[in-house]
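It would be a great kindness if you could assist me with a short task in structural biology. The matter concerns a single protein, recorded as an amino acid sequence and a row of backbone structure tokens. Could you please explain, in whatever detail you think fit, how the structure tokens follow from the sequence? Thank you for your consideration; the sequence and its tokens are set out here:
___
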Amino acid sequence: MLKQNAPNEPASELLGGNAPVTREDAAKTVQSLFHLSDAPSSFSDVPSSSPYAGAVGAVAKAGIMNGVGNGRFGYGVVLSQAEAAALNARVAHYARLASISADTVEGLSIEQIESGLRSGAFTCQQLISAYTARIEAYDQQGPMLNAIINMNENAKAEAAELDKKQRSGAALGAAHCVPVVVKDVINTDDMPTTNGSELFKNWIPDSNATVINRLEEQGAIVLAKTNLDDFAAAVYGISSLKSAMKNPYDLTRTVGGSSGGSAAAIAAQYAPLAIGTDTGGSLRIPAALTGVVTIRPTMGLVSAHGIFPRALTQDTAGPLAATVKDAATGLDFIAGYDPADPVTARSVGKIPAEGYASFAKGGRLDGVKIGLVTGGLAIWGDQPKGPVVALLRKAAEDIEALGGEVVEIAGPPKSLLGGSSVITFESARDVNKFLAEQGGNVPVTTFRGLYDSGKYSPYAKESYDREIKIDPDALNNNVDYQRSLAMRTALQDWTLDTMAKNGFAAIAYPSSAQLADLIGKEQAGLFSRWSENTGFPAISVPMGYAKSKTGTYMPANIEFLGRAFDEPAIIHIASAYENSTKKRVEPALPEIATLATP
């Protein structure tokens, strides 16, 4: 529910009903409505001596009223009905921003946040306070989503510094005051990085992960660290430190994992942007089960430095958001070469100068050909006639209505898909390397020490019991590991050949062929392996809702797989689909005013 301090009547009534209203009179009324301070006017047709000059400058600065072109405001011109209607919409939007609160931040995009901050509708401190209040209302009271492990106690002080910077007139970063929640396997040097485990509960790393440095250098504020499966080693959405995360669409159902807290936080609008990680589906599984957007980038596009590893040749960080544009904007914030992660050298010269968000522009898909796979990608739990595949087929029709061509194909041979994962082989080696780089205060120094501690969930233990059997120093002679690497290359070749033969820009399939299961159940129908085992990029976007066995309506996502470093193509496809169908619906969380004060 939105709360507004400004009057709720239409702008046409505020501006005098049906009586003619000049643009400068409208400016004066709007200035009074929002108590805007006079500001200099740069419009050539507004006399500096005019009693309206300060009001015109004020509404232009706030972004509520713009000129009519060629440096002119339209001084003396009477507002047309169409102009009054447009002004009405801008007044309503500004009223919402000017009354920023835990309720009114719901649905705010990054672009709207930046607009509100730069226009003066609200301050960075007010924005951070509003999101903090929203987390406090929903995470450990009310629905108790349990998506957050730790809040950043310095967030409000950081916001105050950004407000001071803005007042000084200094250049602001691209991510100025964007609140971000971050999966708690990503190192932060000013708050604990728990990895979801009691073992690391109080551990504060000596340095930030590269993605954190990039966010903060551009002005973002890490608002909180999100809950996850222990060490990202499972997909149940349950940690030994904080227990189960709850799905905002049905509190009895799983969020999936391992970036479950990040996905639930976006679904509940704890922040406009989250950063998670993906080795074996850990971004796209929870995104699909909670109905949010995520991008698993091409291997080498985003640095893995300072992130607790699962398997470094499959590990990547990536953004989660409510919309394709915000997810693409998040990717812009974190992508690029990092000397501390040599794999990112692959990205040099392959990142579009105009940014990934510029491709999230909606539009049509004329001439775009997409392959469609409806089954055969899950380890178990395909439901070729289930409700998710029914939504997938409807999505294919929607894509064709946009001018795209959809061709149903079979997926890769199961031998390639199943034999190309290297997580079991690389885990111990990469954990050993990571722990050795963390300095003297790290709780354990080897994978063996971690395993022997037993301080992780039984779900993570399922993975670790397999991984402890691998000699991390003998991988060059491990025949099974070398075979999996060869199978990865074969899967990449099969995928590229299939796309080339058919002229596909992307291949589509459901991120999960089944809806979210009950908490504690092993989620079936996961179609995530194709992207992670090739290292090719994928974007997962909501495609609708279906009725669960218990009667609740749960979200499902379509995933678009592209060629290496062809994120622009899949972002464009996903954005066109999203903008034309508008499938995502916010979960029905209780009104904050009805919840008890913590």
